[in-house]
Design a protein that fits this description.
single chain; elongated; mainly beta; 4-stranded mixed β-sheet; 148 residues
Length: 148
């Protein structure tokens, strides 16, 4: 049917099966496990699609499912907030991230820039010498909730 085929508008109902509304929780929205240039520019981006700020105190990022996987888990610094309808970038090195991407990250895993807050190592998780680094062919990234 084309415009002009009828002189009256026809409205058809839109029905969707298994429709789910907008997400109401924090999500991992992007992972760069093999960025161009330096591996230190790896990052994880979180998105807060809710209309509320979320305090990330107690939340953690990990690249291991189990404690004995000999990988890393790092907690967000106390008072880290991801604003409503915003993103937060956690990178291995703020200096490398800035060099590759041209913008400032929100937090970093190693202390490369004193102006960028550092994620806090969990010494009881995996190998205490391990660093949050992702395998270049892909890796797992877990977001641990502070209340879980």
């Amino acid at each position: 049917m084309f415009e002009g085929d009828t002189e009256h508008s026809i409205y058809l109902p839109l029905a969707m099966a298994n429709y789910r509304g907008s997400v109401n929780r924090l999500l991992i929205s992007e992972i760069a496990y093999d960025p161009p240039g330096m591996d230190e520019a790896e990052y994880v981006e979180l998105v807060n699609p809710t209309p509320f700020d979320i305090d990330l105190t107690g939340h953690a990022l990990a690249d291991a499912v189990l404690r004995m996987d000999f990988e890393d888990r790092r907690s967000f610094p106390p008072g880290t907030i991801i604003r409503a309808n915003s993103v937060l970038v956690a990178t291995l090195s703020a200096v490398a991230f800035r060099d590759v991407h041209g913008v400032e990250p929100d937090v970093e895993f190693v202390n490369s820039d004193p102006a960028v807050p550092d994620m806090i190592d969990d010494p009881d998780w995996g190998d205490p010498k391990a660093l949050f680094q992702l395998g270049n062919s892909g890796d797992e990234v877990l977001l641990w909730r502070g209340d879980a």
